[in-house]
Protein backbone atom coordinates (compact mmCIF):
# COMPACT_ATOMS: atom_id res chain seq x y z
CA UNK A 1 0.00 0.00 0.00
CA UNK A 2 0.95 3.66 0.11
CA UNK A 3 4.18 5.00 1.44
CA UNK A 4 3.23 6.98 4.57
CA UNK A 5 3.06 10.71 3.89
CA UNK A 6 3.18 10.48 0.11
CA UNK A 7 1.05 13.18 -1.53
CA UNK A 8 -1.64 11.59 -3.68
CA UNK A 9 -3.63 12.96 -6.61
CA UNK A 10 -7.29 13.84 -6.35
CA UNK A 11 -9.58 12.53 -9.07
CA UNK A 12 -11.58 15.13 -10.98
CA UNK A 13 -14.41 14.62 -13.48
CA UNK A 14 -11.81 14.88 -16.29
CA UNK A 15 -9.44 12.33 -14.72
CA UNK A 16 -11.85 9.88 -13.06
CA UNK A 17 -11.68 7.43 -15.98
CA UNK A 18 -7.89 7.32 -15.64
CA UNK A 19 -8.03 6.51 -11.90
CA UNK A 20 -10.81 3.96 -12.44
CA UNK A 21 -8.51 2.34 -15.00
CA UNK A 22 -5.45 2.23 -12.76
CA UNK A 23 -7.56 0.69 -10.00
CA UNK A 24 -8.45 -2.06 -12.53
CA UNK A 25 -4.74 -2.39 -13.54
CA UNK A 26 -5.32 -0.67 -16.88
CA UNK A 27 -3.54 2.37 -18.25
CA UNK A 28 -6.24 4.40 -20.01
CA UNK A 29 -5.44 7.20 -22.43
CA UNK A 30 -7.66 9.48 -24.46
CA UNK A 31 -7.84 9.56 -28.24
CA UNK A 32 -9.32 12.28 -30.41
CA UNK A 33 -12.14 10.97 -32.60
CA UNK A 34 -11.38 13.66 -35.20
CA UNK A 35 -7.57 13.65 -35.62
CA UNK A 36 -6.71 10.30 -33.91
CA UNK A 37 -4.14 11.90 -31.58
CA UNK A 38 -3.59 9.82 -28.42
CA UNK A 39 -2.73 12.04 -25.48
CA UNK A 40 -1.96 12.32 -21.78
CA UNK A 41 -2.72 13.86 -19.30
CA UNK A 42 -6.51 13.60 -19.48
CA UNK A 43 -8.45 16.68 -20.54
CA UNK A 44 -11.87 17.32 -22.07
CA UNK A 45 -10.48 18.37 -25.48
CA UNK A 46 -7.80 17.32 -27.95
CA UNK A 47 -4.50 19.23 -27.44
CA UNK A 48 -3.87 19.15 -31.21
CA UNK A 49 -7.17 20.13 -32.85
CA UNK A 50 -9.24 21.22 -29.81
CA UNK A 51 -12.02 18.77 -30.66
CA UNK A 52 -14.24 17.73 -27.78
CA UNK A 53 -15.05 14.46 -29.53
CA UNK A 54 -12.81 12.12 -27.56
CA UNK A 55 -12.77 8.46 -26.55
CA UNK A 56 -10.83 6.39 -24.04
CA UNK A 57 -8.42 3.68 -25.18
CA UNK A 58 -6.43 1.09 -23.25
CA UNK A 59 -2.66 1.50 -23.55
CA UNK A 60 -0.31 -1.46 -23.90
CA UNK A 61 1.55 -0.49 -20.74
CA UNK A 62 4.86 -0.61 -22.60
CA UNK A 63 7.19 2.38 -22.59
CA UNK A 64 10.80 3.46 -22.79
CA UNK A 65 12.76 5.63 -20.41
CA UNK A 66 12.84 9.10 -21.95
CA UNK A 67 14.49 11.12 -19.16
CA UNK A 68 15.08 11.06 -15.41
CA UNK A 69 16.79 12.61 -12.43
CA UNK A 70 17.85 10.77 -9.32
CA UNK A 71 16.68 12.63 -6.23
CA UNK A 72 18.92 12.17 -3.18
CA UNK A 73 17.34 14.47 -0.59
CA UNK A 74 14.73 13.19 1.84
CA UNK A 75 11.13 14.08 1.00
CA UNK A 76 8.10 12.95 2.98
CA UNK A 77 6.82 9.69 1.53
CA UNK A 78 9.96 8.81 -0.43
CA UNK A 79 13.17 7.03 0.52
CA UNK A 80 16.16 8.45 -1.36
CA UNK A 81 17.64 7.86 -3.77
CA UNK A 82 14.71 7.56 -6.16
CA UNK A 83 14.23 8.31 -9.83
CA UNK A 84 11.77 10.92 -11.01
CA UNK A 85 11.25 9.81 -14.58
CA UNK A 86 9.54 10.69 -17.81
CA UNK A 87 8.58 7.66 -19.87
CA UNK A 88 7.41 7.62 -23.46
CA UNK A 89 4.52 5.23 -23.92
CA UNK A 90 4.47 3.02 -27.03
CA UNK A 91 1.32 4.92 -28.02
CA UNK A 92 3.27 8.21 -28.08
CA UNK A 93 2.37 10.27 -25.00
CA UNK A 94 4.90 10.89 -22.25
CA UNK A 95 4.13 10.71 -18.57
CA UNK A 96 5.96 11.44 -15.34
CA UNK A 97 6.38 8.52 -12.96
CA UNK A 98 8.82 6.62 -10.80
CA UNK A 99 10.92 3.64 -11.86
CA UNK A 100 10.60 0.65 -9.51
CA UNK A 101 12.17 -2.80 -9.14
CA UNK A 102 15.49 -1.41 -10.30
CA UNK A 103 18.58 0.12 -8.66
CA UNK A 104 18.23 3.90 -8.65
CA UNK A 105 21.60 4.51 -10.31
CA UNK A 106 22.75 5.89 -13.67
CA UNK A 107 24.21 2.48 -14.48
CA UNK A 108 20.81 0.80 -14.11
CA UNK A 109 18.61 3.58 -15.51
CA UNK A 110 19.57 3.61 -19.17
CA UNK A 111 17.78 5.96 -21.54
CA UNK A 112 15.49 4.17 -24.01
CA UNK A 113 15.42 1.04 -21.83
CA UNK A 114 12.16 -0.88 -22.28
CA UNK A 115 9.71 -0.56 -19.40
CA UNK A 116 6.39 -2.07 -18.37
CA UNK A 117 3.71 -0.47 -16.21
CA UNK A 118 2.98 -1.86 -12.75
CA UNK A 119 0.17 -0.69 -10.52
CA UNK A 120 0.50 -0.04 -6.80
CA UNK A 121 -2.63 0.65 -4.74
CA UNK A 122 -2.16 3.66 -2.47
CA UNK A 123 -5.67 3.96 -1.01
CA UNK A 124 -9.05 2.37 -1.69
CA UNK A 125 -9.57 4.81 -4.57
CA UNK A 126 -6.09 5.71 -5.87
CA UNK A 127 -3.73 3.25 -7.55
CA UNK A 128 -0.57 4.75 -9.03
CA UNK A 129 1.07 3.56 -12.24
CA UNK A 130 4.83 3.05 -11.96
CA UNK A 131 7.20 1.51 -14.47
CA UNK A 132 9.79 -1.24 -14.13
CA UNK A 133 12.39 -2.58 -16.54
CA UNK A 134 11.22 -5.32 -18.85
CA UNK A 135 12.81 -8.58 -17.79
CA UNK A 136 14.62 -10.80 -20.22
Task: Give an overview in words.
The protein is mainly beta and 136 residues long. The protein is 6% helix and 37% strand. The chain is built from one helix and eight strands. The strands form two sheets. It has a five-stranded antiparallel beta sheet with strand order 6-5-4-7-8. A three-stranded antiparallel beta sheet has the order 2-1-3. The longest helix is centred in the N-terminal third of the chain and has 8 residues. The two termini are 27 Å apart. The mean pLDDT is 95.
Which keywords apply here?
single chain, 136 residues, mainly beta, 1 helix
Spatial sequence of strands, sheet with the most strands: 6-5-4-7-8
Say how many strands there are: 8
Number of helices: 1
Shape descriptor reads globular
Main beta sheet: strand number and arrangement?
Answer: 5 strands, antiparallel
Spell the H/E element sequence.
Answer: HEEEEEEEE
Helix content: under 10%
Strand content: 35-45%
Structural class: mainly beta
* Distance between the ends: 27 Å
The average pLDDT score comes to 95
Amino acid sequence: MATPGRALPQATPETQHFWDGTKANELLLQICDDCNKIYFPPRPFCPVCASRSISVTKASGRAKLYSYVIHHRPVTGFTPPYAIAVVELDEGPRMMTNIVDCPQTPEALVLDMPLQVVFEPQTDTITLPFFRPVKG
